[in-house]
Structures are given as C-alpha cells and as structure tokens.
Amino acid sequence: MNSKLRLTVALALACVIQLSGTGKLNAQDNDCWVKIAFLGHYTDYNSFISSSSYPLLCQTYPDLQSIDKFAVDDRGEELYLVIPSEGYDITVSSCPDEINGKLIEGDILYKTEDGFDTSLSGKPFLVQCNVDLPNVQLVIAGAEGVETYSPHIDLEQGRLAYHARVRDISRPLPQSGPDESVLYADMGISAMVKKGKVVLSLDLDKLRLDANIKNYEKDRYVSREVSGTNGICRQVFIGSRGAKMEPWLCLLMDDGTARILNLIEAIYEDDFYASPELPGFSDIISFEEGGTGEYMPGRFSYQTIFGIDKDGGRHEIPVFLDAGEYTYEALTKKGYYATLTLRSNWRMNLLLEGDQEIPGNWVGSFFEAVTRDDSSDFNFRLTDETEESGTFRLTAKDDKYILTPLSGFALYGKVGKEIELEKER
Questions:
Q1: Residues contacting residue 55 through CB under 8 Å, at least 6 positions apart
Q2: pLDDT of the chain, 425 residues: tens digit per residue
Q3: What is the Cα–Cα distance from 378 to 366, expressed in whole angstroms?
Q4: Disulfide-capable partner of 287 in 37, 232, 250, 263 (CB 3.0 to 4.6 Å)?
C-alpha cells in the first residue's frame, strides 16, 4: 500500500445520509462509492446466522442471503455489511500503527480486486472488527481516485461516522440513559445502552466486595462493556433474584429476545459475557421484579425477575443454581483431567489438561431440558476447532455431584457412565 492510500483518511466530516426504503440495495448514487450497515454485536458467523435477528436482517438486507462467512473477522464484535458500488474495489486492512515514530502499514485482510478474487468485485461482504477503537480500514478505489474509511459508530451521533463517499444504511440504533434503580445506584452499579451495546459503570468502594477480585488493583471506579450479546441491545434492567438478593442485569434485545448476567459473579471474575438467548423469551417488552410472600413493597421472601411480553405474559428468568468449576479424570484420554465450568447465566467451558499440553478448550452454552428432585438434564453446545453438542445429566447425591453424559459429545467421558465430580467453587 503506498503513502497516498495510508494518508487519505477521513473519519468524521458532517451529517449522515439516511437510508430510505428497503429491498435490494444496489442502486447507484452519484457520490456513493460504498454502502455500509452496522448489524450489531456478534461473536462469530454461526452466532450471527443462528440469532433471532438474522431473519429480520435478511428482510432488510437481502444481500445477506448470498454471504456464507465473515470476509474479515478481526478483533472485536461489531459487525458491518459492506456493499461496494459498481466499479469500485475495496481493500480491507488493519489500521496503520506508529512504532518509534515510523508509520507501519497494516496487514491486508481482504481484497475485492485483481490478485485475490476478481469474481468478488462489487459483491457485498461482512466485516467483524473494533475493540474500543477502530482497528480496520477500507481503501475504496474507483475511477475518480481513492478514499479510506474506518467503519465505526460515532457515539455522539449514535450512527455510522460520516464520510462523503459512504452511505449509511444502518437501522436506527437504540440509546438509553442509566438504569434508574436507586438501590443499585447506591450500591455502585449502573448500566446504559451505547451504540446497541451495554456499558456498566462500577464504583468498587460502594460495592464493598471482598478483596479477592480480579484486575481491579488500581481502579476503584471502572467501566465494562457486556460482550457476547449477539445482536443489538435496546434496553437494560437491574433487579434482584434469590435469597441473597444478588443483582442481575437483564438485556432486552431489538428482536424481542432477552439475555442475562449475574453482576456479582461477573465482577469477581472480570468476565462480562452475557448469557445466550433465553429459551421461551420472545416479544419481550420489559422486565420487572416479583415473587411470592411480599413482606415490604417490592421485596419478597422468594425474589425473582420476570420478562414481560407484548401480551402481558410473565416469564421468570431461568438461572443455574449450582454454578462452579467441576473437575474429573477424563475416561477417554488417559492421564488427562477435565475442568467443567458451569456459570449461573448458562455459559459453559470445558478444559482438558495433561502434563505437557492443553488439547481441548471448549466454550459454549447449556440449558436445562428436564428437572427432577435430585437431578437435571441439560442440552449443550460447545466450540473449539469444531462444534459439538449433546445432553448430560447432573445429579446431587450424598453431597456429591455425578456427571452422566447422555448423548452426543461425551465430555471426555462415556455415554451412560457416571463420573464423580469434585466441585472447586
């Protein structure tokens, strides 16, 4: 890439041209070299196409149906649909960096012109990028010359940053003020939606947590973004659940689905990864606290949180009560031990360790399928280099936990064979 391409940078110039109408977005504008739509926050392509938002997005952007992967999956969860106008080629690269006073050009990540794949010229593609700041740039080349643009959301405007040659075809982004729960503001927790993503503000002195928490040695007032939402968040709610009155963050997504996060668990682990989409939660419009045995206004002997749907139906948020790390000896790999981490918000991790290597580090989710007095069956889905799924049973027996793989991926055990677990925490 020559110096002209590196130095032709335009990130914020005036107002935004709004999208009008839907349908196939290939009409040419005199000054439009490329159309870009911000689609939301997604962890990977499979999460994108399996989300409840995907069919709705395909109606708005029919070009999505012809795309079967991310062209660029750089660091970050912001997902953009890029539609080059006819006669324009785009090179996507990581942003230039300055090292010891020298400008180092970024690596080329994708290209639609000669040298990569000429059949891609003018075709739409998907770019996943951006952690805190823009980390990729588009070099747009046409007969009139070359322009450079880094797709990102202007927080002041709540839409794609303006460029004279770029047409923003994004749907309007939701923004919110801080959650107004006085109780949790007094405790040092507030949440708000920015560019469709949840941002938490935490005052650790007000929270008065134990000293044994990660990554907070210096900062006492910190901000954290909630990740893994796979969509665009519209609204947030903080409420209490359980005998310990623990604060839970509830996320209302723009497709009417819901996600949750145990805030105390997230703070201690410094892991703000939201739950997967809650099963049975659709057309949700709000959340509220509730329960049984009200002993004072808004407080119950059994305290919980409900999602309220558009017809007034109430759906209690499900949580996993036996969260922790479970270890056991792998039955199918001699000399290896497995650590199964089950989080209260239905996130799951399986780590296989041996003397010399870590041959497996699976991440994914699980949900309760069948419950009994002393055991429950769970469906799960995990991803490492490949994707696996199945069902397992977790049994509490004489103060011990028993894992029984029932079908599919056996979690390094054997289907139908009980494995005694050691619960670490």
A1: none
A2: 433 333 333 322 222 222 333 333 433 455 899 999 999 999 999 889 989 899 999 999 999 999 999 999 888 899 999 999 888 889 999 988 877 778 788 889 998 864 444 455 568 999 999 988 899 999 998 888 899 999 998 877 778 999 999 999 999 888 766 665 656 778 889 898 988 889 999 888 888 776 556 556 567 788 899 999 999 999 999 998 987 788 999 999 999 999 999 999 998 888 999 999 999 999 999 999 988 877 777 677 888 999 999 999 999 999 999 999 999 999 988 889 999 999 999 999 999 988 766 678 899 999 999 999 899 999 999 988 788 999 999 998 887 899 999 999 999 999 999 999 998 76
A3: 6
A4: 250
Token pair in block for residue 176: 């919110």
For 207-298, list the strands marked E by DSSP.
221-225, 233-241, 246-253, 258-262, 284-296
Q: Tell how many helices (H) and how many strands (E) occur in the chain.
A: 6, 30
CB 88 within 8 A of CB 140: yes
Report the alpha-carbon distance of residue 417 to residue 117 in Å, rounded: 51
At which residue do the structure tokens 């509220």 appear? 288
